[in-house]
Amino acid sequence: MIRPLRQVHRYQAIVLGILLPIVFVLGIAARKPVPAMAELPQALVPMFSWVRCSNFDGYGAFPKSPVFIDLWSQKNGSGPFAVSFDADANFVKPDLMVYWIAGSPSQVENLPADAVLLGAFGRTPLPISKEVSSADGRLVLYSLADGEIVDVSGSIRLNTEGVTKSR
């Protein structure tokens, strides 16, 4: 009884060994191509264009962190600004958020109630309203996971010429 079962199993393994690669190759060849678009629809085109990349070391922004800031403006030159952030690979902080604090407080121990959340730290441009960009203020890097302020920029102002150090 065992020998006939072994013979059937041998034939099944031989047939599968021949058919499976053939079926696999036919399946790969019969796949439909991945759809592609020639260009993005207007609704998906980013509303910001790159203006300049600024290292704010000269302005005293983020004295404790190796953070680079990109300033963005709208394509037509009117409207609000946006900022995006980039850091060295060894700068790793959990759940890092970016806030704007209006004015120029000398010490920032805790996040004030009137701080404006800009968004998550990263390369995605974070829009800044005209009210925020027209006043002096500070950018704050805040770690949600640690519940603490990681770094506070020097007092800065965003304008059409870029970023200027406030006095």
Report what the structure shows.
- There is one protein chain.
- With 167 residues, this protein is of the alpha+beta class.
- The protein has one domain (42-165).
- Helix content is 19%, strand content 34%.
- The protein has helices at residues 2-29, 130-133, and strands spanning 48-54, 67-74, 81-87, 96-102, 116-120, 126-128, 137-143, 148-152, 156-159, 162-165.
- Strands 1-2-3-6 form a four-stranded antiparallel beta sheet.
- The longest helix has 28 residues, at 2-29.
- The protein is elongated.
- The termini are far apart.
- 20% of the residues are buried.
Q: How far apart, in Å, are the first and last alpha carbons? A: 96 Å
Secondary structure: number of strands: 10
Main β-sheet, in a few words? 4 strands, antiparallel
Based on Cα principal axes, name the global outline: elongated
| Count of discrete domains | 1
| Alpha-beta classification | alpha+beta
* Helical content band: 10-25%
Tally of helical runs: 2
Radius of gyration: 28 Å
Strand order in the sheet with the most strands = 1-2-3-6
Q: Estimate the mean pLDDT confidence.
A: 78
- The string of secondary-structure elements, in order, is HEEEEEEHEEEE
What share of the residues does DSSP label as strand, in percent?
25-35%
